[in-house]
Design goal:
The complex is a heterodimer of chains A (111) and B (112). Chain A is mostly beta strands. Chain A is built from no helices and nine strands.
């Protein structure tokens, strides 16, 4: 199964864009990249996912490199409520529904 | 509102006792999952079920059991065989395919 690597922590100024990187160099051609975030003692919240094209929704944008070995989650205007642990996940092939979570990036948005 | 309900939010048990964690969803999702999270770590898959009356072991199934008698419900039993049961337990559900998982708000189990 493909694994992901994320920096353990990042800071961002309130109102600025937060760019969270993720490496997934062993990703297979039919595996999607998912992003979730988790605020302490709550369940993870789905943010966005993509296969190879860039994606945007009301929460964030997802930029996937052409070789699909890495991606970046962009929160365009970070707020204090965006402080959370962000998980980049590659969904394994075979459609078992399993998501393999890594350690995540703790994003601290500062005023 | 549609969603996933886990109860209770906090649960305390004595060592050697079995305990069952509840997970109910009204999203009409076929698939349901149980994860365990330890402090400062990511989620690890315990069991998952893609349809009623069928389930598969995840990466850390030892010491746990599940049932899926109804589409809406996927209870998890933490047995006395689980060596380190104290953890945060999360239930999730999804439709089939590559649709995202929806998570409940978890049950924090403490065994002493």
């Amino acid at each position: 199964d493909a694994k992901t690597t994320q920096p353990p922590s990042m800071d961002c100024a309130e109102g600025r864009a937060a760019n969270l990187p993720c490496n997934h160099s062993t990703i297979s051609g039919n595996e999607y990249v998912y992003w979730y975030r988790q605020i302490h003692s709550q369940g993870p919240q789905y943010i966005i996912h993509g296969l190879k094209n860039n994606e945007t929704n009301e929460m964030a944008s997802l930029i996937i490199t052409e070789d699909r070995k890495s991606s970046t989650l962009i929160l365009p205007h970070a707020t204090l409520r965006d402080t959370a642990v962000y998980y980049c996940i590659v969904r394994p092939s075979g459609n078992t529904g399993k998501l393999i979570f890594g350690q995540g990036t703790t994003l601290q948005v500062k005023p | 509102d549609g969603g996933i309900t886990q109860s209770p939010k906090y649960l305390f048990r004595k060592e050697g006792q079995n305990v069952t964690l509840s997970c109910e969803q009204n999203l009409n999702h076929d698939a349901m999952y149980w994860y365990r999270q330890d402090p400062g770590q990511g989620l690890r898959l315990i069991y998952y079920s893609q349809i009623v009356n069928d389930f598969q072991k995840g990466d850390i199934a030892e010491g746990y059991s599940v049932s899926r008698e109804k589409k809406e419900s996927f209870p998890l039993t933490v047995t006395s065989a689980q060596k380190n049961p104290t953890a945060f337990y999360l239930c999730a559900s999804s439709t089939t395919g590559t649709s995202p998982l929806h998570f409940g708000n978890g049950t924090r189990l403490t065994v002493t």
